[in-house]
Backbone:
């Protein structure tokens, strides 16, 4: 069969093109393989990969190769998400894919169980159309570390919220130049409920008596002077006692402490906490090394203040004269070794026991005040734990007195700032 020179030249040229194309394809594949092998050096540090699925959900491609990730390895082995995810998770994925056109920017979050524990992933997708066919391209990111960090933050926030709710404390900040005062956490009342309008910026003049505000100004100015001298806040954890006026117009005492710092914009800000204060003896005044007799001798200077000491069996270890006379004994020694329930009347014991049991359990001082008995009377009871050297609460010092309601309010209003 005779071929014309022109046809022969065309065949030779076509063959040359095919050889060149084959060489290029081989070089490209070789180059891609080399590039993919580079990922093996960083296999444990990559957290993103691409997956291409057919219309019926079969795996077409996964990249980059040599990736060390439990989900990537399962996809390459099982070729389908249906064989990897649980039935409920797979239905969620199908619902997500059906709504992809309406909400393309919303990711799909899911988890899988592995030998190393639960791993979380973020999935984003788009539909790749080629002629009359279409594939689904998925970008997957391992967000396990982010989820663990978020969980830790949530747990920490729960602990902070619980602490603030049970203690009545709150966090605050104040811009030095503008004197803008902000509640960083809400103010809680004595029942642990959030006080309305106690979040965000507040006018201190509206929630603090003028005398207290003036004292706070002096405290703040002294910290500013020290800060400018030394370049840092050296005030430690010293507290100032100030009153805040609640929604009902009743002032409550808080111990304020704060730390002065300079922000990036050169603004000076003081941030700190405020602790609700009850009228009770400081725990540092009562410790295991102090003799009971010495302490009672000082307490006897207070008229109408009744004092008793009980152990964990609620047996009286000591009391003052006012306590013994109130319950029909002339000598305090006569009550030694008796159970508290045998000495005080049931209405007293109900109040005392509720507070004492809580102090034994938590090991922190507690105060209770409220209406008591007949008439317009209030009972004010304070319980202070006495601890051994190992920190175990072995006894509790109980101090209480009865006041007329008007006398109680006068005492609160006449308290001086320390």
Residues:
């Amino acid at each position: 069969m005779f071929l014309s020179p022109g046809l022969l030249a065309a065949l030779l040229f076509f063959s040359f093109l095919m050889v060149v194309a084959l060489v290029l394809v081989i070089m490209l594949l070789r180059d891609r393989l080399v590039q993919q092998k580079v990922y093996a050096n960083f296999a444990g540090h990559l957290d993103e990969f691409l997956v291409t699925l057919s219309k019926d959900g079969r795996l077409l491609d996964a990249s980059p190769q040599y990736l060390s990730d439990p989900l990537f390895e399962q996809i390459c082995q099982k070729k389908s998400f249906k064989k990897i995810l649980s039935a409920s998770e797979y239905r969620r994925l199908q619902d997500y894919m059906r709504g992809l056109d309406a909400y393309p920017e919303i990711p799909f979050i899911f988890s899988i169980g592995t030998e190393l524990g639960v791993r979380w992933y973020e999935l984003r997708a788009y539909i790749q159309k080629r002629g009359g066919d279409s594939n689904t391209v998925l970008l997957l990111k391992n967000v396990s570390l982010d989820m663990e960090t978020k969980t830790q933050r949530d747990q920490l926030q729960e602990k902070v919220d619980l602490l603030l709710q049970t203690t009545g404390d709150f966090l605050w900040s104040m811009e030095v130049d503008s004197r803008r005062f902000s509640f960083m956490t809400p103010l809680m009342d004595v029942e642990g409920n959030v006080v309305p309008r106690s979040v965000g910026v507040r006018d201190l003049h509206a929630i603090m008596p003028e005398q207290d505000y003036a004292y706070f100004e002096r405290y703040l100015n002294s910290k500013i002077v020290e800060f400018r001298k030394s370049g840092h806040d050296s005030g430690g954890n010293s507290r100032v006692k100030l009153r805040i006026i609640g929604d009902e117009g009743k002032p409550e005492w808080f111990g304020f402490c704060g730390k002065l710092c300079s922000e990036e914009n050169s603004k000076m800000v003081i941030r700190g906490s405020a602790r609700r204060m009850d009228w009770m003896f400081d725990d540092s005044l009562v410790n295991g090394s102090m003799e009971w007799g010495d302490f009672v001798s000082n307490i006897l200077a207070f008229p109408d203040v009744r004092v008793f000491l009980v152990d964990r069996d609620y047996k009286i270890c000591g009391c003052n004269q006012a306590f013994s006379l109130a319950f029909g004994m002339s000598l305090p020694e006569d009550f030694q070794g008796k159970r508290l329930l045998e000495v005080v009347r049931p209405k007293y014991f109900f109040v005392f026991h509720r507070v004492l049991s809580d102090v034994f359990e938590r090991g922190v001082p507690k105060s209770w005040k409220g209406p008591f008995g007949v008439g317009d009377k209030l009972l004010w009871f304070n319980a202070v734990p006495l601890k051994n050297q190992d920190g175990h609460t072995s006894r509790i010092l109980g101090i209480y007195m009865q006041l007329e309601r008007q006398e109680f309010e006068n005492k609160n209003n006449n308290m001086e700032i320390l």
User: Anything to note?
Assistant: The longest helix spans residues 5-38. The chain is about 35% helix and 30% strand.
